[in-house]
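Section: Multi-chain targets

For targets with more than one molecule, the full set of components is provided together so that the structure can be written out for the assembly as a whole rather than chain by chain. Components appear in the order listed by the source. The example entry contains two components.
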Amino acid sequence: MNIRIYNVRILTMEAGKGIFRGEVWVKGDTIAYAGPVILDSKEKWDQEIDGRGNLLMPGFKNAHTHSAMTFLRSHADDMKLDEWLNTRVFPAEAKLTGEDIYWLNKLAIMEYLTSGITSVFDMYLNKPAAERTVKDTGYRMVICESINDFGGTIQEVEEDYHRYNQDPDRRISYQLGFHAEYTTSRELMEGLSGLSEKYKIPVYVHCSETKKEVEDCRTRTGMTPVAYMDSLGLFAHGGGLFHGVHMDEGDFDIIKKRGLYVVTNPASNLKLASGIAPVKRYLDMGIPVAIGTDGPASNNCLDMFREMFLTTGLQKAVCDDPEAVPAMEVLKMAAVNGAYAMGLPECDTLAEGKKADMILIDLQQPNMQPLQNIEKNLVYSGSKQNVKMTMVGGRVLYQDGNYYLDSSKEEIFARANESARRILG
Amino acid sequence: MNIRIYNVRILTMEAGKGIFRGEVWVKGDTIAYAGPVILDSKEKWDQEIDGRGNLLMPGFKNAHTHSAMTFLRSHADDMKLDEWLNTRVFPAEAKLTGEDIYWLNKLAIMEYLTSGITSVFDMYLNKPAAERTVKDTGYRMVICESINDFGGTIQEVEEDYHRYNQDPDRRISYQLGFHAEYTTSRELMEGLSGLSEKYKIPVYVHCSETKKEVEDCRTRTGMTPVAYMDSLGLFAHGGGLFHGVHMDEGDFDIIKKRGLYVVTNPASNLKLASGIAPVKRYLDMGIPVAIGTDGPASNNCLDMFREMFLTTGLQKAVCDDPEAVPAMEVLKMAAVNGAYAMGLPECDTLAEGKKADMILIDLQQPNMQPLQNIEKNLVYSGSKQNVKMTMVGGRVLYQDGNYYLDSSKEEIFARANESARRILG
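Its structure, encoded as tokens over all components, is:
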């Protein structure tokens, strides 16, 4: 499909470009042009979208989630992370089939689309189900390996690394990772370290989410999780830490030196009483931060607007500094940094040659008026209500409240409710 | 108009009633029936609304806002409260006309409607503009008096108390109040105290929003703002405190003894780096809490879903207690307590004889699925996107993204942008 979007304000997220009026051409899954109006073009279009009154920008990247946990939404709230994981999450997950995960992923994708999220860094069970979801829906997912002591071998990880990195369209791809230091043996971590070295690839992991996790690791190893994992060579080729809430001085230095990304998940960290990540400190040190929703079991929603407001709002309050983490910095985390964090540099900005992962923001809503500063409006007062269209890889998957997926909304809801009922009773 | 809403799940917010399926009858501005399905009714309806798949509940009450500050949205962010007030807000407000305020109020009302807010406790300049807005739009506003050293006399306040409490429909009403201890002379506060005593009426005020405010008051008076204002007799007939972030032990006792409401404004307190109010402590002491958005200049949006998540999420993190402030408690604050806080007991629940201020929540959206616990879904994953219909005083003012006001969306946006441009340049 060749699509032209015209009459529109454009925020490319390229440094220094600001917002300008113009048009964007999409050919196949790629942006063919993004710039001022072109008169007298001879191009033929399959679809033309009038963007009058709206803003076109790169989609948001959800840099840490567990999509299929939609079945646990509002099932187990108001509990501490470790109790929640051990008494509620793990027993329920043991009953999940690949078919469940396929439909629960689709439910999550619907919600991502409503929030302008065009790709996710998904850490969950059953990679074939993720691959099938992506193939059928047209969505873009990066699988984050989540091996741990409860399942998986280094050999399987190596096979998966090859298997899931063969999609020429990069709608499915794969990054090396593991669940967490506290669920993974030293032997396994050393194996992963070996793979990272063999292929010169980054490693991603849940890290320092709770105080208890850090204290337990210190008791066992004499080191913080960051220092201990670094001592095993896991970060020699970069990577990223999910959550990154409780850090000591040495940790900041390691993160900086290894060029790690930190993916902050502020809503989940509040709801599970895990704490508030030192995002301003990361930024002051030049450590790149991306944003994730975490899974819908802990958050409980998949809304990048909520996360963006929290990412700046919490820092302002905690640092007693209303200038902390300005709006444009937050937009960069959500739209650009997330792409790099999950290994999708071709999805960072709205520019020629990049993947056509874009969203149309409805500015003709009261929360966007008056139009004094659109970037600030997006971060401080934006909501799902403003997402008019979400395009992934050149395909419109959501527009004006309608979903353009291979299954109907009704079928996805019915299947997700069936799975939840069967598993949770 | 007589309206019947049928085929719908109903959450009346009456204690112990839970959610049931049934129908609701509206006659004029009042709820005539809310209960199980009635077969073979002979009633004639002007309009029947099929609520299949949705939830009907009382609207949210925004218990502290400054509606017409919409013109300052995204104009002055990232500043401390006192600098922000003195260098940005006050100089801009000096240029506002009644006509500006009328249109800026309408812009705010549009946004309230998208967020399911059916009444607001509005503290702002120019009461005639507020009255005119309410008359023309059909919305419900309670004016909170905001007298201070920069304008107003006790005699005018007394006149306004009578003038704005005459609407038989109670779409406009008036409560005694003043801006804040730090902007109001002792003489004026004593005058207000006298009026409160004369009419046995409550008093509302911004209170203990920032640390500096409390420290300055201690320096001047030797007391906290709560203790000082109480010593002047201001709370002898109850009332409420907006913000209530920085409290000492004695303050909690005074608030409890006087039966004061605390109206929490979590997003504004984060954004202005004012702090996090001790909401869990208030609840533990049995102090009733309501929720406000504060004005769009500090928040920057008017979204009760954001405030509800923050009201519980922040307490969980700050108190290191994921069980703090459960979802149903938050819903009660937003829908019920707010009504009492602003003197609208006839708007608290969805029951026969109450005002027909109701909202229809779209459960057929991915963030509400699966339907395991609807109350939790509302608080932890709800968004403006779920507001399908907002009814105030028996009139549908918003439905399926369309506004049913006396002016068009385009006109309101144009007028608001004109005002902002003229005043801010």
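Chain A has a mean pLDDT of 96.
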